[in-house]
C-alpha cells in the first residue's frame, strides 16, 4: 500500500501537468486492475507458447551444468584421451564384468584397438580401486594384459580419472524426481520463466503506461526507445549470467563440495530454480539505466547529484547485489555488483551529456531571444548555460 500511494501520487502529478483533473483513488485502482489483467494475459500467452519448446528450454538450461561436469572430468584425463572415448570405455568395462573371456574378446573386437586398450585400462583401474595405494600400483602393473594397457592405466591413475559410468554428469542424479507431478510442474515453471523473458518488452510497456499515463506522440516514441533499450539490457544481463556467471558459480560449488568429501547429487528441480532465478535477477539488475535515465530526463536526478552521491551508490549497489543473488558467496555478489556499478557510471556520463545538450539548446534560445528583441540576457538566467565538467 505504501508503494501504491507513491505511484498514484506520481500519476496525479503527471496528469496535473497535462491539465487533467485529479483522479479519485478508486479510478487509480481500476487502472491498476487493467494493467495487471493485460500483464497476466500477455504472460499467459507467452507461457503457453514456450511450453511447446519445454524440452529445448530444458537442454538450454542444462548446458552450463553439463559443461561444468564435463570440464571437471576432462581435467582428470591425460592428454589425448577424449571425454566421449573415456565414457564409452567405462560403459564397456561395466558390461565386461558379467562376460566370460571369449565374450570379452568378441566385444573388444567390435571397437578400434585404441578404444579396446582404453576399455581394458578402465577395467584394470576398477579392479585396483579398493586396494591400498601401494598394492594398487602392483595390481595395475601385473594385472594389465599388455604394456599399452598398463601405460594407459598408470596415466589414468596418476590423473585420478573419474571411474563412474558415463561422463562427469553421470555422477549426479540430475533427472531424479521425488513426486509424480514434479516433472510437469517443472515444465510449467520453466515455461513461465521463459515467458517472462520473451514478453518483457510488453510487460515493461504496460507498467510504464500505468505509471506515466496520457503520453503525447513524441513521448510515446521516447517510451518505445526506452522499451527497446530496456529489453536489450535485460537480454544482455541474462546472457551475461548464462555464459559467464552461472558456469563459474556452478564450478565453485561443485569443486567446493568435493573438497569436503560431499557428493554432488543435485536434483533437477533445485537446479532449475537456482539457474532461472539467477538469470532473471541479472536481467533485472541490468535495467538500472532504464530506471535512472527517466528521472534524469524529468530533472529529478542531475549529473552533480549523481556524482556527489557516487559513494552511497556503491554501497547501495553492493547491498542490492547481496540481497537479490540467490547465493550468499562474495564472488557471485561481485559478479553482479561490478556490472551494475559500471552501468551506474554510464548513467552519470549520459546525465552529463544530457545536461550539455540542454545547455546548448538553452544558449541557442537565449541567442535567438537576444537577436529578436535586441537585448542581452545574463548567463545566470539559465541553469544550463554553464554545464558542469565531466569527472
Which properties best describe this structure?
391 residues; 0% strand; single chain; mainly alpha; 74% helix; elongated
Describe the protein's topology:
Elements: H1 2-17, H2 25-51, H3 54-74, H4 83-96, H5 101-108, H6 113-128, H7 133-143, H8 147-158, H9 182-198, H10 200-211, H11 217-259, H12 268-285, H13 288-297, H14 303-308, H15 310-324, H16 330-373
Helix pairs in contact: 2-9, 2-10, 3-9, 3-11, 4-6, 6-7, 6-8, 9-12, 10-11, 11-12, 13-16, 15-16
Please explain how this structure is put together.
Mean pLDDT is 80; it is low at 167-173 and 381-386. The protein is mostly helical and 391 residues long. The chain starts with a helix and ends in an 18-residue tail after the last helix. 74% of the residues lie in helices and 0% in strands. The chain has helices at 2-17, 25-51, 54-74, 83-96, 101-108, 113-128, 133-143, 147-158, 182-198, 200-211, 217-259, 268-285, 288-297, 303-308, 310-324, 330-373.
Q: Count the beta strands.
A: 0
| Number of H- or I-type helical stretches | 16
Mean pLDDT: 80
Radius of gyration: 31 Å
Fraction of helical residues: over 70%
What is the 3D shape? elongated
Q: How is the biggest beta sheet arranged?
A: none
Assign the structural class, choosing from mainly alpha, mainly beta, alpha/beta, alpha+beta, or little secondary structure. mainly alpha
The N- to C-terminal Cα distance equals 40 Å
Uncertain segments:
167-173, 381-386
Oligomer: single chain
Beta-strand residue fraction? under 5%
* Strand/helix succession: HHHHHHHHHHHHHHHH
Amino acid at each position: 500500500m505504501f508503494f501504491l500511494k507513491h505511484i498514484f501520487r506520481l500519476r496525479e502529478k503527471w496528469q496535473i501537468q497535462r491539465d487533467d483533473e485529479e483522479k479519485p483513488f478508486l479510478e487509480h485502482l481500476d487502472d491498476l486492475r487493467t494493467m495487471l489483467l493485460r500483464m497476466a494475459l500477455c504472460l499467459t500467452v507467452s507461457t503457453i507458447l514456450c511450453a511447446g519448446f519445454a524440452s529445448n528450454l530444458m537442454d538450454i538450461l542444462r548446458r552450463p551444468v553439463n559443461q561444468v561436469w564435463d570440464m571437471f572430468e576432462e581435467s582428470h584425463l591425460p592428454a589425448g584421451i577424449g571425454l566421449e572415448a573415456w565414457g564409452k570405455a567405462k560403459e564397456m568395462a561395466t558390461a565386461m564384468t558379467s562376460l566370460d573371456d571369449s565374450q570379452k574378446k568378441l566385444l573388444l573386437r567390435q571397437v578400434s584397438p585404441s578404444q579396446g586398450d582404453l576399455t581394458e585400462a578402465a577395467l584394470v583401474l576398477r579392479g585396483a580401486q579398493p586396494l591400498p595405494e601401494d598394492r594398487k600400483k602392483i595390481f595395475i602393473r601385473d594385472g594389465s594384459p599388455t604394456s599399452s594397457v598398463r601405460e594407459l592405466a598408470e596415466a589414468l591413475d596418476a590423473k585420478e580419472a573419474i571411474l563412474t559410468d558415463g561422463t562427469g554428469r553421470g555422477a549426479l542424479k540430475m533427472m531424479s524426481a521425488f513426486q509424480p507431478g514434479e516433472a510437469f510442474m517443472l515444465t510449467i515453471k520453466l515455461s513461465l520463466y521463459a515467458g517472462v523473458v520473451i514478453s518483457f518488452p510488453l510487460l515493461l510497456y504496460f507498467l510504464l503506461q500505468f505509471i506515466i499515463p496520457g503520453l503525447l506522440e513524441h513521448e510515446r516514441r521516447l517510451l518505445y526507445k526506452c522499451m527497446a533499450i530496456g529489453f536489450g539490457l535485460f537480454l544482455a544481463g541474462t546472457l551475461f549470467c548464462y555464459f559467464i556467471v552461472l558456469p563459474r558459480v556452478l564450478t565453485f560449488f561443485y569443486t567446493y563440495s568435493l573438497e569436503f568429501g560431499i557428493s554432488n547429487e543435485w536434483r533437477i528441480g533445485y537446479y532449475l530454480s537456482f539457474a532461472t532465478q539467477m538469470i532473471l535477477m541479472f536481467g533485472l539488475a541490468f535495467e538500472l539505466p532504464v530506471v535512472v535515465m527517466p528521472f534524469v530526463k524529468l530533472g529529478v536526478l542531475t549529473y552533480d547529484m549523481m556524482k556527489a552521491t557516487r559513494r552511497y551508490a556503491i554501497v547501495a549497489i553492493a547491498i542490492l547485489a547481496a540481497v537479490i543473488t540467490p547465493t550468499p558467496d562474495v564472488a557471485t555478489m561481485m559478479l553482479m555488483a561490478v556490472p551494475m556499478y559500471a552501468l551506474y557510471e554510464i548513467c552519470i556520463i549520459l546525465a552529463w551529456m544530457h545536461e550539455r545538450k540542454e545547455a546548448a539548446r538553452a544558449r541557442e534560445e537565449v541567442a535567438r531571444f537576444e537577436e529578436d528583441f535586441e537585448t542581452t540576457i545574463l548567463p545566470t538566467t539559465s541553469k544550463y548555460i554553464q554545464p558542469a565538467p565531466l569527472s
